[in-house]
Structure formats: C-alpha cells, structure tokens
Amino acid sequence: MNIKIDTVHSPSRGVRGPYAKLTAIAVATTVCAIGLPAQTVLLPTPNAPPISGVVVGSDGGRIQATVTAHGLTPPSVSATAETGPDGSFVLGGLPDGNYQLCVEDKGGTYLDPCAWSETQVIVAAKGSRPVSGFRLVMALGVKLEVRVNDAGRVLDPVAPPANRPRTELVVAAVTPRNIVLPVRFAGRTGAVRSHRIAVSSGARMFVGVLSFGANVNDPQGRPIEAGRITSLPITIPAGQNPPPVDLTVTGARP
C-alpha cells in the first residue's frame, strides 16, 4: 500500500507534531509527500473580498474549528481563520480564484472533508463580490481507539541510557483518500495507553504503526518491524464505534 499526503490537505491538520518521525521514512511534516516542494503561502491581497460563512455539524451543531482555504487557481495561496463560538468564520485577503476549504474540529468529533469526503468543498471567489453565508457541513465521526499494552512501561517518556535510542510509538489513521492523520494519545489506564481519533462510519481504512526502539506486536500477536510503517487494514462498522485495535509492547530493542 502506498501511503501519501494530499498536497491540498490543510496544513493545520495531523501530519505535523507526533507524525514528524515519519518525515525521513514516508511522510513530510507539512502536507507534501517527500520529494514535493512545500507549499508557499503568498501575502494577502489588500481589499480582496472575503469568504465568510458558518461551520456546522451534520447533526446540526455549531462547531468551533480552524478553517483553511487552499488555492486551486491560483495555486500556492492560502488563508486560515478561527471560527467564533457560533461557528462563523471570515477568510480575507484572497485574490480571485477557486479555493478548497478544509476544516479542523477543535473537539475532535467531526470529520475534515479534505481528509474523509469524496466530494471536496470548493468555493469560487471572483471580482469584487464577497462570498457570504457559506454553510460548511462537517460529518459527525465515530471514535476509533488504538490501545497499546505497555506492561513494562517501555514507552514512558524517560531519558534512555546513553547506549540505547529513545523508544517511541507513532500511530496514525490512513483515510480512504490516503490522507495520514495522527491518532493522538488520550490517556492511560494502568499499563494500557489509549489513542483516539474520529473516523468515518463505514470507511475501509488503515491504521499505520511505526515503532522506534520498541518491540511491538499487532492485534494477532505478530511482531511489527521496527523503523518501518506497518499498515493494518480495518473496516469501520456503519453507525457505531469500531472495536479497539490492540497493540502490545513486548520490550525494548537492544
């Protein structure tokens, strides 16, 4: 399976942060696959008409989110805005063109259409007329949990001995559009670390696992090769949370 990054996907989303360890292996820390140039953001155009609207959930709820417009024509132009408490947003300073809108829900409950939807949200800005009253609907997701049983506390954030590399486990979701998103650490109960992400109901997707300095087994008890991405295929049941994906840390690598 080829894991890639959609170069139009919002840079505010998950290919940054915890996914930085994948930069030298498969994924850049911004929105580009290795070998592609990073996006250049041009300065805003003074007095350009704004794009404004409201972000709502498919269940009718108003969402606090980060909205990013990515230029399709012209390319290499983008703007980002935070929504108000009522979900309203204003994107200003964009020259004439067609823009793809990507949205990150701050609560982690709704799905960014750029990552999950086959139908992308495209807005045309033209002339001196603003785009106003745009209603951007985010689909409500279901929760996927990845549980990591680390009885030996191999992944605990402590300084490793001088002769041993730091141990780390990176967990990601690969959407049906082949967008890579981090499955973020949500807490622990005893020896079990929990990672969670909102995913699309009924989706056929992958969980990507990458370990450094730790021996990890997949849900069937098979060893996961350290330093390489392992893709675990899963199908999300329609309308319900899927069963957890269980990984087991069996020890530190010598």
Question: Can you summarize this structure?
Answer:
This protein is mostly beta strands. Helices cover 2% and strands 44% of the residues. It contains one helix and 18 strands.
Describe this structure in words.
With 254 residues, the protein is mainly beta. 2% of the residues lie in helices and 44% in strands. The strands form four sheets. A six-stranded mixed sheet has the order 12-13-9-18-15-16, with no helix packed on it.
Sequence stretches where pLDDT stays below 50 over 5 or more residues: 1-44
Query: How does the overall form come out from the CA principal axes?
Result: elongated
SSE series: EEEEEEHEEEEEEEEEEEE
The rounded distance between the terminal residues' Cα atoms is: 29 Å
- What is the helical fraction, as a range of percent? under 10%
**Main sheet strand line-up:** 12-13-9-18-15-16
Discrete helix count: 1
The radius of gyration is: 20 Å
Task: Sketch the major β-sheet.
Answer: 6 strands, mixed
Number of E-type strands: 18
Mean pLDDT across every amino acid position: 80
How big a fraction of the residues is strand? 35-45%
Itemize the secondary structure elements and their pairings:
Blueprint: E1 51-57, E2 65-73, E3 78-82, E4 88-91, E5 97-105, E6 110-111, H1 113-116, E7 122-125, E8 131-140, E9 142-149, E10 168-174, E11 180-182, E12 184-189, E13 192-199, E14 204-212, E15 214-217, E16 223-224, E17 230-235, E18 245-252
Parallel strand pairs: 1-8, 9-18
Antiparallel strand pairs: 1-4, 2-3, 2-5, 5-7, 6-8, 9-13, 10-11, 10-14, 12-13, 14-17, 15-16, 15-18
